[in-house]
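Appendix B. Raw example, untouched.
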Amino acid sequence: MAVGGTVIGKKKPRDSETLLTPEMMDEGTRRRVVQFLQTLEAAILEANCEVIGKQLPHLDEKAFLKVAVRVAELRADYVALGLRIAEQRHPDAAAIRQLSEARVAYEEMAAVFDAAERVVRRGYVKQG
């Protein structure tokens, strides 16, 4: 519905919500924005290297393999449990809770593996 040419429920964006596209910037502003973002990216890299490097000085192949094996074991446990529970048409609440806990354990360890892989890919820890 419109009242006085305005769409009801649609608010006008504030100036702070309007994006300044590269086409809208002059060359000097564009250069300053790019330089700012590059400086910020370098600072974030340095902070991550310092913090993560101190806390994870031994993130090596052996550590990755340990996590990968644990993820595989937890995935197998989760699927096996699900297959056992599937034998019952109406599994009880305890069985569903156990299945949920197995899924969460698997998903959390898979997320750890992904996070560790990202740490290495981003160069936050030294290799070798």
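End of appendix B.
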